[in-house]
């Protein structure tokens, strides 16, 4: 996933009202940027951190700037939670996720369950059953080398797991975690942040929902899927 415009560097002053961030650009100008991240942003919304923003001139946008990346230590971490769906789609189309290869078509945002939409629906090809793929963004890392999800309580996330479990038998069901950082070697659910989600994930896996987790290579030009991460649900 390439950024549409060159990113501009600045310093995070504060993130507030969930979707707003005040940022001082290197030019000295202070802007308010859209923050496309409804979570707590634990560990990444650090005041004074170096950040990068994109500028948009689309008509109808209230804010021309979007917060895209934060630098924590020496690691670039995208904060836009809409990125993973695009990253996953590009990766499936390129055939770089072996578990999701062999399908003839891909559809996005297909209605299923109780008023939900699946992120990716893979059908046809040499695979006999359709494949429902739910994608989640991951950027939390509180322990060196370990990625975690979620960063706040997510009833919606637990609901998605229930809906994936409900389609087993007639289809494959995949929970795909996209870690938008490259400094982690393993993944686990953040059970202390949301015990119910961690329990729901374990129950879904036992029922047959397949759990996949991949990290990303991040630059100031693009974010691309890189490699699978180790994970275990045994400790839950």
Order of adjacent strands in the largest pleated sheet: 3-2-1-4-5-6
CATH architecture of the largest domain: 3-Layer(aba) Sandwich
- The Rg value, from CA coordinates, equals 18 Å
Helical content stands at 10-25%
Q: What does the largest sheet look like?
A: 6 strands, antiparallel
Described by the principal axes of the CA atoms, the overall outline is globular
CATH class of the largest domain: Alpha Beta
Structural class of the secondary elements?
alpha+beta
Number of domains: 2
The unreliable regions are none
Rounded to the nearest angstrom, the distance between the terminal CA atoms is: 33 Å
The helix-strand sequence is EEEEEEHEEEEEHEEHEEE
Count of helix runs: 3
What CATH calls the topology of the largest domain is Trna Endonuclease, Chain: A, domain 1
| Count of extended strands | 16
Give the percentage of residues in beta strands. 35-45%
Structure commentary:
- There is one protein chain.
- With 236 residues, the chain is an alpha+beta fold.
- The chain has 2 domains: 8-77, OB fold (Dihydrolipoamide Acetyltransferase, E2P), CATH 2.40.50; 83-231, 3-Layer(aba) Sandwich (Trna Endonuclease, Chain: A, domain 1), CATH 3.40.1350.60.
- Helix content is 16%, strand content 42%.
- The chain contains 3 helices and 16 strands.
- The strands form 3 sheets. The chain has a 6-stranded antiparallel β-sheet, with no helix packed on it. A 6-stranded mixed β-sheet has the order 7-8-9-12-14-15. A 4-stranded mixed β-sheet has the order 10-11-13-16.
- Helix 2 (155-166) runs parallel beside helix 3 (195-207).
- It is globular, with a radius of gyration of 18 Å.
- The two termini are 33 Å apart.
- The relative contact order is 0.15.
- The mean pLDDT is 95.
């Amino acid at each position: 996933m390439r950024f549409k415009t060159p990113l501009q560097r600045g310093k995070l002053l504060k993130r507030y009202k969930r979707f707003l961030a005040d940022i001082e650009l290197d030019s000295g100008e202070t802007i308010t940027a859209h923050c496309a991240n409804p979570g707590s942003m634990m560990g990444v919304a650090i005041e004074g951190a170096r950040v990068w923003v994109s500028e948009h001139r689309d008509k109808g946008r209230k804010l021309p700037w979007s917060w895209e990346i934060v630098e924590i230590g020496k690691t670039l971490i995208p904060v836009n939670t809409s990125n993973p769906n695009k990253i996953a789609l590009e990766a499936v189309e390129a055939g770089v996720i072996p578990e999701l290869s062999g399908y003839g078509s891909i559809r996005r945002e297909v209605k299923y369950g109780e008023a939900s939409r699946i992120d990716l629906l893979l059908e046809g090809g040499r695979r006999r059953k359709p494949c429902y793929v739910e994608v989640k963004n991951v950027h939390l890392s509180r322990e060196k080398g370990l990625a975690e999800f979620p960063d706040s309580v997510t009833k919606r996330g637990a609901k998605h797991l229930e809906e994936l479990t409900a389609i087993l038998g007639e289809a494959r069901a995949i929970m795909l975690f996209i870690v938008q950082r490259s400094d982690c070697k393993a993944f686990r659910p953040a059970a202390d942040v949301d015990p119910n989600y961690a329990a729901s994930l374990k129950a879904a896996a036992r029922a047959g929902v397949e759990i996949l987790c991949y990290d990303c290579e991040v630059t100031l030009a693009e974010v691309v899927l890189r490699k699978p991460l180790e994970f275990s649900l045994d400790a839950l």
